[in-house]
């Protein structure tokens, strides 16, 4: 199997490239000129420079691919327009270029549960048939990216995967924050009480993406729920579950969990972003993340993925965090 991967040097991308090679596949990594290729040292991949906004270099990079895994995305941006350029416009350009090929490869779009939105008063995990209602710029841009890909679905066989919180070694967002919270022995629970979350270990996501690319049902251009798969490890976690498991793995004991009103969380997001801008960037916690934090529960059902291609997560939270924290534990 010949696989082209966008976002190959990112957190999930580097794990996916290695997993494809382990499975006997060949990888071509689509990168920007400034991408740090060293993160894939030791992994036998070919590199191709491509621009997902202008379309430059895409056709040559994917011309012999059986599957294109589209992981490139912006998870932080200073505006709605910034998210849409990276997450929606770029996806449309990629899908449109694939549609011009004589025999287009299968396209797997790695979207996000943020595109579906939180659970809002339903009392159950989100299913693919539920109407999407993103609450953040990021989520809205990922949903727009899905719709851009779907525009070409009558020409390009397309599968859309929506992972929840993804964690593992090399993660620079969720894992460091969770470790810092566990070590501080105090966790802040934002928004309304009773919130629960779905998570997924990065290697399980990679296996799910590969299975979706090989066996997933493809999307229809006029069928908004077709070809979409939610993935998760099948367990719903409270914030207390997450930080206490992290504390146990790190040997920090059981942290306290303190509720914080939604208004305070939103204000903290504004302040954090303002400070970040003064320092020349967008911080991990900002206005957009604050909107997601106070929105309620973020859980998904992976039943459709199990029915269609037998997806089951293999790594539980404690084992996954132990692997993700390995450098901290032995550093």
TrEMBL record:
InterPro entries: Epimerase_deHydtase, NAD(P)-bd_dom_sf, NAD(P)-dependent_oxidoreduct
GO molecular function term, any single one: aldehyde dehydrogenase (NAD+) activity
Protein name stated in the entry: NAD-dependent epimerase/dehydratase family protein
GO cellular component: cytoplasm
Residue span, NAD-dependent epimerase/dehydratase domain: 3-215
């Amino acid at each position: 199997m010949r696989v082209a991967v966008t976002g190959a040097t990112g957190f999930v991308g580097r794990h996916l490239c290695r997993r494809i090679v382990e499975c006997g596949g060949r990888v071509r990594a689509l990168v920007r000129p400034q991408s740090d290729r060293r993160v894939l040292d030791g992994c036998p991949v070919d590199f191709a420079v491509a621009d997902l906004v202008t379309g430059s270099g895409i056709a040559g990079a994917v011309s012999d691919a059986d599957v294109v895994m589209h992981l490139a995305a912006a998870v932080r941006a200073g505006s709605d327009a910034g998210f849409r350029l990276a997450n929606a416009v770029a996806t449309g350009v990629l899908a449109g270029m694939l549609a011009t090929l004589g025999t287009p490869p299968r396209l797997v779009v790695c979207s996000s549960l943020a595109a579906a939105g939180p659970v809002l008063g339903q009392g159950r995990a989100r299913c693919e048939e539920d109407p999407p209602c993103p609450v953040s710029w990021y989520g809205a841009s990922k949903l727009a990216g899905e719709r851009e890909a779907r525009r070409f679905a009558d020409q390009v066989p397309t599968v859309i995967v929506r992972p929840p919180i993804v964690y593992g070694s090399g993660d620079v967002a969720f894992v460091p924050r969770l470790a810092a919270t566990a070590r501080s022995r105090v966790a802040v629970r934002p928004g309304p009480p009773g919130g629960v979350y779905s998570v997924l270990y990065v290697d399980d996501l990679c296996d799910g993406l590969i299975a979706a690319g090989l066996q997933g049902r493809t999307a229809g251009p006029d069928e908004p729920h077709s070809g979409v798969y939610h993935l998760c490890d099948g367990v719903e976690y409270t914030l207390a579950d997450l930080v206490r498991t992290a504390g146990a793995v790190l040997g920090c004991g059981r942290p306290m969990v303190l509720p914080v009103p939604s208004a305070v969380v939103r204000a903290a997001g504004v302040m954090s972003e303002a400070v970040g801008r003064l320092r020349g960037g967008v911080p991990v916690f900002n206005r957009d993340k604050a909107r997601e934090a106070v929105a309620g529960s973020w859980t998904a059902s992976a039943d459709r993925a199990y029915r269609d291609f037998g997806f089951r997560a293999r790594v539980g939270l404690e084992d996954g965090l132990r692997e993700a924290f390995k450098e901290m534990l032995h550093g």
